[in-house]
Write a structure and sequence with these properties.
- Helix content is 52%, strand content 19%.
- By secondary structure, the protein is of the alpha+beta class.
- The protein has 3 domains: 165 residues, PAS domain (Beta-Lactamase, 2-Layer Sandwich); 98 residues, 2-Layer Sandwich (Beta-Lactamase), CATH 3.30.450.20; 158 residues, Histidine kinase-like ATPase, C-terminal domain (Heat Shock Protein 90).
- The protein has a 5-stranded antiparallel β-sheet with strand order 2-1-5-4-3, sandwiched between helices. The chain has a 5-stranded antiparallel β-sheet with strand order 7-6-10-9-8, sandwiched between helices.
């Protein structure tokens, strides 16, 4: 009984909502359609009136008001419309009224459409016509008086009965649709009410079966049924285990992708310290055999430091992260971080992450070598300055020549220290500017001639001859003028410094189509092949224990290499040809695109 009451309430509420919805749609749609019909009628009336106005303007001059009335009567008959011409409130011509009866018509000067047409040029109004005994729509436009007609208003009248008839037909059709829809809804509701009890009983039986643990059963979800959300919930509960397993598999795939995509090597160990898994990065790092899984770390990697790390992590349950480092046979350095973790059963396991820190170690070594070289370059002249200064203070030489020798020695070593520091600053500046340097088109010939002229006095003092072999053009290249001049100065100064007296220095340039290659060759002792690349390193010198009287800091070629690299070029030592008797340094710079 309660079920039937529940069903009846649903049916009554459904019918009530349907009646309300259809009623709202009925009145709303008829109002909108009515407004659209009126608007459409007005729009068509305006188009007809515009055409009539054009015909009046284009007509030959009318002989009088009667001719105009006759012409409008014929046009109105063809169009099926009432056309009037009104001037100063008097109807001069009307297609629906005989010419003889026009004088009996009322004064039209107060009509709304006439007033709007005279004031604004166009006017429209809807009202009952006493002359035609029907509801009319009037549209009017102002006429300026053409073809011998006085200025007035041209008006078109359209019966509103046509619009009303279309609205009545629409309402009748909608009422029939309303009744048919209501009857159909009643039939469908009756059928649904009859089957509702069967659906609820079937739902209860299946829900009881699933509730007992039989997840293979499914509820049939009826489209649009009242119990569709509940049926979907029960089916969702039955699929929960399957979805959970699928989620676990997806997460496993994601973790595997991360595991294999890492640049660091990763190794997982079980509770016994045996290898459970490892990624491809670790395989690339150690070239592990296929039988690695199940082995101990020392058996797989052959490093006792790694096994000691694992043993510490397994023996001490309070130990958190721990690390170790060791060097490989190929000069690589590896840092291993060990982290213990617990699996879902609470078993303690270990994961090892292998970091290749070779680059970092090389950087640290380079920094240490740099500091050591700087200390070496500054310690010797500083010791000499200190020693001669103390001698001058404690035991001043009796002879002025000895005192001058001491002061010259101090000045020479101070100049050397100044060159070392200036070279270090120049190298740092070149490395910093390399990231933000904008290259411009530079005349290689102009910069080369300037550099050669700068070293001519020094070379002439030792009777050294400078020869140049270059192309005839300006040798345009992409560079920065000050940096390029520094490279030429450094290479030319080295050539003069190491050339014998009365020797020859050859400066040449060659255009290979895409770049200009500059070479500077001296006739000194030269550089052996084993040092040809090392001479470009910072502070590197063939004889590391010599501080030259010239004050060389050992940074000149390193600065040249950095500047040329900033110019997207390359520099090298090329002193092993058949005609080469000393050192020959060359560098290449790109030509403008």
């Amino acid at each position: 009984m309660r079920l039937r009451s529940f069903q009846m309430r649903i049916l009554l509420w459904t019918w009530a909502l349907l009646l309300v919805a259809l009623g709202v749609i009925f009145f709303y749609s008829t109002d909108i359609v009515g407004e659209e019909l009126v608007a459409d009628t007005e729009a068509r009336s305006w188009r007809v009136l515009d055409s009539i106005q054009w015909l009046v303007d284009d007509h030959s001059p009318f002989a009088g008001e009667q001719e105009l009335d006759t012409w409008l009567e014929g046009l109105g008959l063809k169009l099926g419309q009432r056309i009037s011409y009104i001037s100063e409130g008097r109807v001069l011509a009307d297609s629906a009224v005989a010419y003889s009866s026009l004088s009996s018509l009322d004064d039209h000067s107060g009509r709304p459409e006439i007033l709007d047409a005279l004031a604004k040029g166009r006017g429209v109004n809807q009202r009952y016509s006493a002359t035609l005994k029907t509801e009319m729509i009037y549209v009017a436009c102002r006429m300026e008086g053409v073809n011998r007609l006085p200025a007035g208003v041209l008006r078109l009248a359209v019966p509103f009965s046509r619009v009303s008839g279309r609205l009545d037909a629409l309402r009748q059709n909608f009422i029939w649709v309303f009744l048919v829809t209501l009857a159909f809804a009643a039939i469908v509701s009756a059928l649904m009410s009859r089957n509702m009890s069967q659906s609820i009983r079937a739902f209860s039986d299946l829900a009881s079966t699933i509730g007992e643990g039989n997840y293979t059963q499914r509820l049939r979800v009826l489209p649009g049924g009242e119990f569709k959300p509940l049926a979907e919930s029960v089916n969702t509960m039955a699929k929960k285990i399957e979805r959970t397993v699928q989620t676990m598999e997806d997460q496993k795939g994601q973790l595997q992708a991360i595991f294999e995509g890492m640049h660091e090597g990763v190794m997982t160990l079980d509770s016994n310290g045996r290898i459970e898994s490892f990624n491809s990065a670790l395989d690339d790092m150690f070239n592990l055999p296929e039988s690695t899984v199940g082995l101990s770390p020392i058996e797989a990697v052959r490093r006792f430091e790694l096994q000691e790390l694992v043993d510490r992590l397994r023996k001490d349950p309070d130990l958190g992260n721990d690390t170790t480092q060791f060097d490989l046979m190929d000069s690589r350095t590896v840092e291993v971080s060990g982290v213990p973790f617990f699996d879902q059963k609470g078993v303690r396991k270990v994961i090892l992450v292998f970091h290749d820190i070779t680059s970092m170690k090389r950087s640290e070594k380079g920094l240490k070598d740099f500091v050591a070289n700087v200390s070496h370059q500054l310690r010797t002249p500083l010791t000499s300055i200190k020693g001669y200064s103390e001698t001058l203070l404690d035991n001043p030489p009796v002879k002025a020549e000895d005192a001058q020798f001491f002061l010259e020695t101090i000045l020479k070593n101070a100049d050397h220290m100044d060159k070392v520091i200036s070279s270090m600053l120049a190298l740092a500046k070149s490395e910093q500017l390399g990231k933000e340097l904008d290259l411009v088109v530079v005349s290689g010939r102009e910069i080369l001639v300037r550099a050669v002229n700068d070293v001519i006095p020094w070379a002439a003092a030792r009777q050294i001859n400078l020869q140049t072999r270059t192309p005839d053009d300006d040798m345009p290249i992409m560079a920065e003028p000050d940096g390029l001049l520094h490279v030429f100065h450094n290479l030319l100064n080295n050539a003069v410094k190491y050339s014998p007296d009365s020797g020859t220095i050859t400066v040449s340039a060659e255009d290979d189509g895409e770049s200009i290659v500059f070479c500077i060759e001296d006739q000194g002792t030269g550089i052996s092949r084993e040092y040809s690349t090392k001479v470009f390193e910072r502070f590197y010198r063939v004889d590391e224990n010599t501080i030259e009287g010239s004050g060389s800091a050992g940074l000149g070629l390193a600065i040249c290499r950095r500047i040329v690299k900033n110019f997207d070029g390359e520099i090298w030592h090329d002193g092993y040809g058949e005609d080469t008797r000393g050192a020959r340094f060359c560098f290449r710079l790109n030509k403008p695109a």
